[in-house]
Please model this.
Amino acid sequence: MTLRSSEDAVTSSGGHRTSVLARRRARTGFLLTVPALVLVVGVVVIPIGFALWISANRWPLFGEISFVGLDNYIRVFQDAQFWQSVGFTLLYTAVVTGPVLIFGYLLAAFVRGERPGTRLFRTLLFLPTVVGLSTLSFLWYVELRPNFGLVNVTLKALGITNGQTGWSLHWVTGLAAVSVLVIWFAVGTTMVLLLGGMQSIPAEIYEAARIDGVNGWQREMLITVPLVRRNLAMATVLSVIASFLAFQQFVILTNGGPGRETTTVVMSIFHESFYAQQLGSATAMGVVVMLIVAALTAIQLILMRERDA
Model:
Protein backbone atom coordinates (compact mmCIF):
# COMPACT_ATOMS: atom_id res chain seq x y z
CA MET A 1 0.00 0.00 0.00
CA THR A 2 2.83 2.34 0.95
CA LEU A 3 4.80 1.38 -2.17
CA ARG A 4 1.79 2.09 -4.46
CA SER A 5 1.26 5.49 -2.86
CA SER A 6 4.89 6.35 -3.46
CA GLU A 7 4.61 5.31 -7.14
CA ASP A 8 1.43 7.37 -7.54
CA ALA A 9 3.15 10.36 -5.99
CA VAL A 10 6.13 10.00 -8.35
CA THR A 11 3.80 9.66 -11.36
CA SER A 12 1.78 12.67 -10.27
CA SER A 13 4.95 14.69 -9.72
CA GLY A 14 6.30 13.67 -13.17
CA GLY A 15 3.01 14.61 -14.86
CA HIS A 16 3.01 17.98 -13.09
CA ARG A 17 6.57 18.72 -14.28
CA THR A 18 5.60 17.72 -17.84
CA SER A 19 2.59 19.99 -17.71
CA VAL A 20 4.66 22.92 -16.42
CA LEU A 21 7.29 22.31 -19.12
CA ALA A 22 4.61 22.21 -21.81
CA ARG A 23 3.11 25.49 -20.59
CA ARG A 24 6.56 27.12 -20.55
CA ARG A 25 7.23 25.93 -24.09
CA ALA A 26 3.84 27.22 -25.25
CA ARG A 27 4.47 30.60 -23.58
CA THR A 28 7.96 30.81 -25.11
CA GLY A 29 6.58 29.92 -28.53
CA PHE A 30 3.92 32.61 -28.26
CA LEU A 31 6.46 35.23 -27.16
CA LEU A 32 8.68 34.34 -30.14
CA THR A 33 5.77 34.93 -32.52
CA VAL A 34 4.86 38.31 -31.03
CA PRO A 35 7.31 40.35 -33.19
CA ALA A 36 5.97 38.69 -36.34
CA LEU A 37 2.37 39.28 -35.22
CA VAL A 38 3.09 42.94 -34.50
CA LEU A 39 4.75 43.29 -37.91
CA VAL A 40 1.81 41.65 -39.73
CA VAL A 41 -0.73 43.78 -37.86
CA GLY A 42 1.28 46.95 -38.49
CA VAL A 43 2.03 46.53 -42.20
CA VAL A 44 -0.90 44.37 -43.36
CA VAL A 45 -3.97 44.36 -41.12
CA ILE A 46 -4.09 48.06 -40.17
CA PRO A 47 -3.38 49.36 -43.73
CA ILE A 48 -6.03 47.03 -45.19
CA GLY A 49 -8.53 48.11 -42.53
CA PHE A 50 -7.79 51.79 -43.24
CA ALA A 51 -8.12 51.18 -47.00
CA LEU A 52 -11.54 49.58 -46.45
CA TRP A 53 -12.58 52.62 -44.40
CA ILE A 54 -11.42 55.02 -47.16
CA SER A 55 -13.28 52.99 -49.80
CA ALA A 56 -16.50 53.39 -47.80
CA ASN A 57 -16.28 57.18 -47.97
CA ARG A 58 -16.50 59.87 -50.60
CA TRP A 59 -12.90 60.99 -50.07
CA PRO A 60 -11.83 63.72 -52.50
CA LEU A 61 -8.19 64.75 -52.60
CA PHE A 62 -9.33 68.16 -51.37
CA GLY A 63 -12.65 68.83 -49.66
CA GLU A 64 -15.20 67.32 -47.32
CA ILE A 65 -15.20 63.60 -46.52
CA SER A 66 -18.57 61.83 -46.25
CA PHE A 67 -19.60 58.22 -45.59
CA VAL A 68 -21.19 56.54 -48.66
CA GLY A 69 -21.13 52.83 -47.71
CA LEU A 70 -20.87 50.59 -50.79
CA ASP A 71 -21.49 53.33 -53.37
CA ASN A 72 -17.83 53.39 -54.45
CA TYR A 73 -17.89 49.62 -55.08
CA ILE A 74 -21.11 49.97 -57.09
CA ARG A 75 -19.41 52.65 -59.20
CA VAL A 76 -16.40 50.40 -59.73
CA PHE A 77 -18.52 47.48 -60.92
CA GLN A 78 -20.37 49.83 -63.33
CA ASP A 79 -17.14 51.41 -64.64
CA ALA A 80 -16.57 49.96 -68.13
CA GLN A 81 -13.12 51.58 -68.48
CA PHE A 82 -11.94 49.97 -65.25
CA TRP A 83 -12.98 46.51 -66.42
CA GLN A 84 -11.38 47.17 -69.81
CA SER A 85 -8.12 47.85 -67.97
CA VAL A 86 -8.61 44.64 -65.97
CA GLY A 87 -9.09 42.69 -69.21
CA PHE A 88 -6.01 44.25 -70.81
CA THR A 89 -3.93 43.52 -67.69
CA LEU A 90 -5.04 39.88 -67.74
CA LEU A 91 -4.07 39.68 -71.45
CA TYR A 92 -0.67 41.23 -70.72
CA THR A 93 -0.16 38.79 -67.82
CA ALA A 94 -0.98 35.83 -70.07
CA VAL A 95 1.36 37.09 -72.83
CA VAL A 96 4.33 37.66 -70.52
CA THR A 97 4.17 34.83 -67.99
CA GLY A 98 4.73 31.89 -70.36
CA PRO A 99 7.87 33.24 -72.11
CA VAL A 100 9.35 34.39 -68.77
CA LEU A 101 9.04 30.85 -67.36
CA ILE A 102 10.21 29.08 -70.54
CA PHE A 103 13.25 31.29 -71.20
CA GLY A 104 14.05 31.41 -67.48
CA TYR A 105 14.07 27.60 -67.34
CA LEU A 106 16.18 27.24 -70.49
CA LEU A 107 18.73 29.76 -69.26
CA ALA A 108 18.88 28.14 -65.82
CA ALA A 109 19.48 24.77 -67.47
CA PHE A 110 22.22 26.33 -69.60
CA VAL A 111 24.13 27.97 -66.74
CA ARG A 112 23.63 25.34 -64.00
CA GLY A 113 26.94 23.63 -64.76
CA GLU A 114 30.38 24.94 -63.90
CA ARG A 115 31.55 25.45 -67.45
CA PRO A 116 33.94 28.34 -68.23
CA GLY A 117 32.10 31.64 -68.51
CA THR A 118 28.88 30.54 -66.82
CA ARG A 119 29.34 32.91 -63.87
CA LEU A 120 29.82 35.87 -66.20
CA PHE A 121 26.78 34.75 -68.20
CA ARG A 122 24.65 34.53 -65.04
CA THR A 123 25.75 38.04 -64.03
CA LEU A 124 24.91 39.48 -67.44
CA LEU A 125 21.47 37.84 -67.42
CA PHE A 126 20.70 39.18 -63.95
CA LEU A 127 21.99 42.66 -64.76
CA PRO A 128 18.60 44.03 -66.03
CA THR A 129 17.09 43.25 -62.61
CA VAL A 130 19.82 45.29 -60.94
CA VAL A 131 19.40 48.22 -63.35
CA GLY A 132 15.67 48.45 -62.70
CA LEU A 133 12.57 48.41 -64.87
CA SER A 134 12.07 52.19 -64.94
CA THR A 135 15.57 52.85 -66.25
CA LEU A 136 15.26 50.08 -68.83
CA SER A 137 11.89 51.48 -69.93
CA PHE A 138 13.44 54.88 -70.68
CA LEU A 139 16.29 53.22 -72.61
CA TRP A 140 13.81 51.05 -74.51
CA TYR A 141 11.73 54.15 -75.32
CA VAL A 142 14.77 55.73 -77.01
CA GLU A 143 15.57 52.55 -78.95
CA LEU A 144 11.98 52.38 -80.24
CA ARG A 145 12.01 55.90 -81.69
CA PRO A 146 11.26 56.08 -85.44
CA ASN A 147 14.19 56.58 -87.85
CA PHE A 148 17.05 56.57 -85.30
CA GLY A 149 16.08 54.04 -82.61
CA LEU A 150 18.14 50.83 -82.69
CA VAL A 151 15.04 48.63 -83.08
CA ASN A 152 13.71 50.53 -86.09
CA VAL A 153 17.17 50.88 -87.66
CA THR A 154 17.74 47.11 -87.31
CA LEU A 155 14.34 46.21 -88.73
CA LYS A 156 14.93 48.57 -91.66
CA ALA A 157 18.35 47.03 -92.32
CA LEU A 158 16.73 43.59 -92.40
CA GLY A 159 14.09 44.84 -94.84
CA ILE A 160 11.22 44.13 -92.45
CA THR A 161 9.98 47.72 -91.95
CA ASN A 162 10.76 51.16 -93.34
CA GLY A 163 12.28 52.20 -90.01
CA GLN A 164 9.47 54.62 -89.16
CA THR A 165 7.29 52.38 -86.99
CA GLY A 166 5.55 54.20 -84.15
CA TRP A 167 5.25 51.39 -81.65
CA SER A 168 2.83 53.20 -79.36
CA LEU A 169 0.38 54.14 -82.14
CA HIS A 170 -1.45 50.78 -81.95
CA TRP A 171 -2.21 48.74 -78.85
CA VAL A 172 -0.86 45.51 -80.38
CA THR A 173 2.57 46.96 -81.19
CA GLY A 174 2.58 48.80 -77.87
CA LEU A 175 1.82 45.58 -76.01
CA ALA A 176 4.50 43.75 -78.02
CA ALA A 177 7.12 46.41 -77.23
CA VAL A 178 6.38 46.35 -73.49
CA SER A 179 6.23 42.54 -73.40
CA VAL A 180 9.67 42.13 -75.02
CA LEU A 181 11.14 44.55 -72.50
CA VAL A 182 9.53 42.88 -69.47
CA ILE A 183 10.48 39.37 -70.61
CA TRP A 184 14.12 40.52 -70.95
CA PHE A 185 13.89 42.17 -67.54
CA ALA A 186 12.23 39.30 -65.64
CA VAL A 187 13.94 36.31 -67.18
CA GLY A 188 17.08 36.81 -65.05
CA THR A 189 15.15 36.67 -61.77
CA THR A 190 13.27 33.56 -62.93
CA MET A 191 16.58 31.98 -63.95
CA VAL A 192 17.99 32.54 -60.44
CA LEU A 193 14.89 31.06 -58.76
CA LEU A 194 15.02 27.94 -60.92
CA LEU A 195 18.80 27.65 -60.77
CA GLY A 196 18.62 27.32 -56.98
CA GLY A 197 16.28 24.35 -57.33
CA MET A 198 18.34 22.72 -60.08
CA GLN A 199 21.59 22.95 -58.13
CA SER A 200 19.98 21.23 -55.11
CA ILE A 201 19.32 18.05 -57.13
CA PRO A 202 21.93 15.39 -56.21
CA ALA A 203 24.30 14.55 -59.06
CA GLU A 204 23.84 10.82 -58.28
CA ILE A 205 20.29 10.97 -59.67
CA TYR A 206 21.53 12.23 -63.03
CA GLU A 207 24.34 9.67 -63.01
CA ALA A 208 21.90 6.81 -62.36
CA ALA A 209 19.65 8.10 -65.14
CA ARG A 210 22.62 8.26 -67.52
CA ILE A 211 23.55 4.66 -66.75
CA ASP A 212 19.93 3.65 -67.44
CA GLY A 213 20.20 5.25 -70.89
CA VAL A 214 18.02 8.33 -70.28
CA ASN A 215 18.53 11.00 -72.93
CA GLY A 216 18.67 14.75 -72.31
CA TRP A 217 14.98 15.45 -72.98
CA GLN A 218 13.85 12.61 -70.70
CA ARG A 219 16.27 13.80 -68.02
CA GLU A 220 14.67 17.24 -67.99
CA MET A 221 11.06 16.03 -68.14
CA LEU A 222 11.36 13.07 -65.73
CA ILE A 223 13.90 14.40 -63.22
CA THR A 224 14.56 18.15 -63.34
CA VAL A 225 11.05 19.51 -63.91
CA PRO A 226 9.37 17.42 -61.14
CA LEU A 227 12.13 18.27 -58.64
CA VAL A 228 12.02 22.04 -59.31
CA ARG A 229 8.22 22.12 -59.35
CA ARG A 230 8.08 24.24 -56.18
CA ASN A 231 10.51 26.75 -57.67
CA LEU A 232 8.43 26.86 -60.85
CA ALA A 233 5.29 27.48 -58.79
CA MET A 234 6.99 30.30 -56.88
CA ALA A 235 8.29 31.86 -60.11
CA THR A 236 4.79 31.65 -61.62
CA VAL A 237 3.15 33.32 -58.61
CA LEU A 238 5.70 36.14 -58.57
CA SER A 239 5.45 36.66 -62.33
CA VAL A 240 1.63 36.82 -62.27
CA ILE A 241 1.56 39.27 -59.35
CA ALA A 242 4.23 41.51 -60.90
CA SER A 243 2.45 41.47 -64.28
CA PHE A 244 -0.91 42.31 -62.74
CA LEU A 245 0.63 45.29 -60.94
CA ALA A 246 2.36 46.63 -64.08
CA PHE A 247 2.61 50.40 -64.11
CA GLN A 248 5.84 52.25 -64.91
CA GLN A 249 6.70 50.40 -68.13
CA PHE A 250 3.31 51.29 -69.68
CA VAL A 251 3.44 54.88 -68.42
CA ILE A 252 6.86 55.41 -70.01
CA LEU A 253 6.36 53.50 -73.27
CA THR A 254 2.67 53.98 -74.18
CA ASN A 255 1.16 56.21 -71.48
CA GLY A 256 -1.90 53.98 -71.68
CA GLY A 257 -2.55 54.85 -75.33
CA PRO A 258 -3.67 55.03 -77.97
CA GLY A 259 -6.73 56.31 -76.13
CA ARG A 260 -6.91 54.02 -73.07
CA GLU A 261 -6.28 50.76 -74.94
CA THR A 262 -3.04 49.90 -73.08
CA THR A 263 -4.15 51.27 -69.72
CA THR A 264 -3.41 48.76 -66.98
CA VAL A 265 -5.49 48.37 -63.85
CA VAL A 266 -2.92 50.17 -61.68
CA MET A 267 -2.90 53.08 -64.15
CA SER A 268 -6.70 53.25 -63.79
CA ILE A 269 -6.31 53.54 -60.03
CA PHE A 270 -3.65 56.24 -60.51
CA HIS A 271 -5.95 58.23 -62.83
CA GLU A 272 -8.86 57.95 -60.40
CA SER A 273 -6.65 59.08 -57.51
CA PHE A 274 -4.75 62.01 -58.99
CA TYR A 275 -6.66 63.13 -62.12
CA ALA A 276 -10.23 62.56 -60.90
CA GLN A 277 -9.00 63.22 -57.31
CA GLN A 278 -11.36 60.61 -55.85
CA LEU A 279 -9.38 58.60 -53.31
CA GLY A 280 -12.47 56.72 -52.08
CA SER A 281 -13.38 55.16 -55.43
CA ALA A 282 -9.68 54.68 -56.28
CA THR A 283 -9.23 52.73 -53.05
CA ALA A 284 -12.30 50.65 -53.87
CA MET A 285 -10.61 49.80 -57.19
CA GLY A 286 -7.51 48.84 -55.24
CA VAL A 287 -9.51 46.54 -52.98
CA VAL A 288 -11.05 44.83 -56.02
CA VAL A 289 -7.58 44.37 -57.57
CA MET A 290 -6.29 42.96 -54.28
CA LEU A 291 -9.10 40.38 -54.26
CA ILE A 292 -8.40 39.43 -57.90
CA VAL A 293 -4.67 38.97 -57.22
CA ALA A 294 -5.43 36.99 -54.04
CA ALA A 295 -7.80 34.73 -55.99
CA LEU A 296 -5.22 34.12 -58.75
CA THR A 297 -2.53 33.34 -56.17
CA ALA A 298 -4.85 31.01 -54.23
CA ILE A 299 -5.71 29.10 -57.41
CA GLN A 300 -2.04 28.59 -58.20
CA LEU A 301 -1.24 27.48 -54.64
CA ILE A 302 -4.19 25.05 -54.61
CA LEU A 303 -3.06 23.54 -57.91
CA MET A 304 0.45 23.14 -56.50
CA ARG A 305 -0.87 21.54 -53.29
CA GLU A 306 -3.01 19.07 -55.23
CA ARG A 307 0.02 17.97 -57.19
CA ASP A 308 1.98 17.49 -53.98
CA ALA A 309 -0.79 15.27 -52.50
Notes: Residues 128 and 136 are 7 Å apart (CA to CA).
